[in-house]
Amino acid sequence: MNTLMPEVSAWYQELASGNLFEVVAIDEASGTIEYQLVDGEVGEYDGASWQMLYLAPAEAPEDWRSPYALSTEDQAYSDQTMVPEDFSGPLTELEPELMDLGDDFQIL
What is the largest CA-CA distance in the chain? Predict the structure, then answer.
């Protein structure tokens, strides 16, 4: 039986399968422990399942961030919004029409 208490950000190795994982969250309300394997796969254990595991504390592997690494192509573009310097164009000349949605709402 497992006597280790789960800790967020702590790494463990399941001795039966050899899987290395990190505890990423503990939900005390539902009694679940969420974990993430080195390859990025996520899962959860309930409290009883956690106690049945054969675990040993482990060090974080050197390449544990590799599933999250950006490729060179992804690094070239960011999520920042690209805004043109000049907003002139044919769509700027369009006038919005009045929409009547009843007494409560009117959109111009």
Answer: 73
**pTM > 0.85:** no
- 8 A C-beta contact, residue 39 and residue 67: yes
As a whole number of angstroms, the distance between CA 46 and CA 67 comes to 26
Taking alpha carbons only, the member of 2, 42, 46, 40 closest to residue 26 is 46
CATH number of the domain encompassing residue 56: 2.30.30
Distance, in Å, from the CA atom of 49 to the CA atom of 30, rounded to the nearest integer, reads 13
Domain containing 19 equals 1-61
| Domain annotation covers residue 101 | no
Question: Cβ distance 64 to 38 under 8 Å?
Answer: yes
Note the pLDDT tens digit of each residue in 59-92: 988 865 655 555 555 555 555 666 666 667 776 7
| Contact assessment for residue 19 and residue 28, using Cβ atoms and an 8 Å cutoff | no
Could you give the C-alpha distances from 43 to 18, 24, 26, in angstroms and in order? Answer: 16, 10, 12
